[in-house]
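Quick start: what a row looks like.
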Amino acid sequence: MIIVQEVLIVLNGVFKEDTQKYKKLIDKFDTIIAVDGGYKFLKKFVKREPDILIGDFDSIDRDSKLLNNFTGEIFEFPSDKDKTDGELSVDYCVKNNLNNISFIGATGGRIDQQFGNILLLEYAFDSNIEAEIIEPGLKIGLTDNKKKIVNKEGHTLSLFSVTDKVLIKSLQGCKYELKEYWLNRASSRGISNIINSKQAVIEVESGRLLYFICEKC
């Protein structure tokens, strides 16, 4: 049996919810990568040490007391570089055959950074890595096949094409169901559906579909 190692990447985002909600999510993971300032949130508020720290340390002093007694691996990069620290964390996963990752701390703050963090899903996808963004009450992911959504009844489901268009073979378990529907990249047709079953299923026949599952949108 193949054991899939699930990895959490903590980005330097804005953590708006109660820290206990984040702790509950973070404690599900055995392997944690902190990206630059994401380390401060882990250390100060969640009281959790990451296994790996990656970044240029523009958000955390390399000689900070926070790093005292840190025993994990540190990968430091120059501030003048062609990739974000988030992309570098995905590169690390590629090199180490870690193909199931979740990002946290990807939302909040500057809108351009949020958009860039969402694009990390495509960056991971292109590297054959299964990835999701998770926050309390929120999941964002990408699929080009079949996606089952379990125990999210009452949540809002929004769908967007990240290719020119997506052929949704079927969408079941929602207030508005679809069958053999072409969703164009510029269309807002997929926004604000409601999951009304214990299990919703999205089947994509062609293209890439970005999904948002939101408890309180």
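That is the whole record. The CA atoms of residues 165 and 187 lie 9 Å apart. Helices lie at 19-26, 38-46, 85-95, 111-125.
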